[in-house]
Design brief:
four-stranded mixed sheet, alpha+beta, single chain, Glutaredoxin, three-stranded antiparallel sheet, Arc Repressor Mutant, subunit A
Length: about 300
């Protein structure tokens, strides 16, 4: 009897007898992630900028295991006569500049900081409001991209991200309507969303930035305070994932990473690919063609920007 169970292979283009069962039950429901990761941060947090390389790699390789939530902590509502951060000797805006430079030098995620002497950020709430509106109306990814661009603008380009015009420009660069989004963020909804984050921060027991809290479905979790090496975040995830073996995703190629991130510092390349600083330039030359990027330098640190 002639076999009518024929099929054309989508990959090879070859037609032949189907080897798969004619009837097969398939579950198309996406498996829900049972772990939530809360990253408590602030747009002007220098130590959060310092751990960007480690957090970036952690998310790329292990993000499939958890739901990622960025939570705004409210580092600076406004300047006042009392101490803002006495542990770091910060009582007025100009005190921030030296502290930021030290953080930048130590972490090798460069920070100019002179902005805080000449035209200081008056509050971290305005960029936080914009972040929350983007997170609510669009997605975590778009909000996170805004946060990254805001930090680049502040720490590298010395732009005052508490100013309205700067925020509008940053949102426009995302391909969105900066004027309308910033206007919405200035309405009571912006502070309402931020207050919800403040309540969550209290519930999580967080008292400083950066802090990562990883919680499983049994509401058991770990809290990782401050900038830590990559292994600390991996170990924390292992503790709450019910001994499930963690399978890291393959790291993206440098061309893929650059297309996504648009600007990458040498330190980020070193951490992502386990490289020494001395071999980064040769690695870039091997991975990228000259028409794909431009090379820049600030405060002794190099970075690449997509063309």
């Amino acid at each position: 009897m002639k076999n009518n169970n024929m099929v054309c292979d989508l990959v090879t283009g070859v037609c032949g007898v189907a080897e798969e069962n004619e009837l097969e039950l398939i579950d198309f429901n996406k498996q829900e992630k049972s772990v939530d990761l809360y990253y408590v941060t602030d747009p002007i947090c220098s130590h959060c900028w310092a751990i960007e390389p480690v957090i970036g790699r952690f998310l790329k390789q292990y993000g499939k295991h958890f739901n990622f939530h960025t939570v705004m902590g409210g580092l600076l509502e406004k300047w006042h006569d009392g101490p803002i951060d006495p542990a770091n000797g910060i009582y007025k805006p100009a005190d921030v500049a030296g502290h930021w430079r030290e953080v930048g030098q130590y972490s090798r995620m460069p920070i100019d900081g002179s902005l805080m002497v000449d035209n200081p950020v008056q509050s971290s709430y305005p960029p936080s409001h914009v972040f929350k509106v983007l997170q609510k109306n669009y997605s975590e990814n778009i909000a996170s991209e805004f946060l990254r661009r805001a930090r680049e603008a502040l720490f590298v380009s010395n732009k005052n991200i508490s100013e309205r015009s700067v925020l509008v420009e940053l949102v426009n660069q995302l391909g969105l309507d900066g004027e309308s989004i910033v206007s919405e963020a200035e309405q009571p909804i912006g502070q309402q969303l931020l207050n919800e984050d403040f309540d969550l921060v209290k519930t999580l027991g967080v008292r400083g930035f950066p802090t990562i809290v990883i919680v499983n479905k049994e509401n058991k979790g770990v809290k990782i305070v401050g900038g830590q090496p990559l292994q600390a975040y991996i170990d924390g995830l292992k503790q709450v994932i019910d001994n499930e073996e963690l399978q890291p995703t393959e790291r993206p190629s440098l061309p893929t990473l650059l297309k996504t991130e648009k600007l990458i510092f040498s330190k980020e390349i070193e951490v992502m690919y386990d490289l020494e600083k001395s071999v980064v330039q040769s690695f870039i030359n091997q991975q990228l063609s000259s028409n794909e990027y431009t090379l820049h330098e600030i405060l002794g640190e190099s970075y690449i920007v997509t063309k």
